[in-house]
Amino acid sequence: MGASSLVSLFEIFLGVLKKIIGKPKSQETKINTGLNEDASAFIRILEKINSKITSTTNITWSSIESVEVFKSEINKDIIAISKGDFSSISTYDTYFLPTGDFQEISISNGWGEEYITLAKEFETLYARIN
Hints:
Elements: H1 3-21, H2 25-34, H3 37-52, H4 67-82, H5 89-96, H6 101-108, H7 112-129
Helix pairs in contact: 3-4, 3-7, 5-7, 6-7
């Protein structure tokens, strides 16, 4: 068996393996969030908020007791929304209210202007699904 035959067999093997394993994660995520434009938009907003909240985030003026637990809850909700479960969205309506947790955190941590943009986007989406 020559080198070109081995290469051909290897390419066939890789093709079969890809079919067995499935699509790469990036394609799966795109398919899941592609099911609904609103889901994609909610996820983008929550991911942006989640990226702003770090272990050093000042949460003094919010009702949040633990940054780590809060980030974990946001991540759990992002996964649920990507699967079409919008049941957690009403919780975020409260977080986005004036003097709500997200506004208090954003002001205390220097991203208040960006919060206003995210809040407007959220409000538009929330009104559309309710």
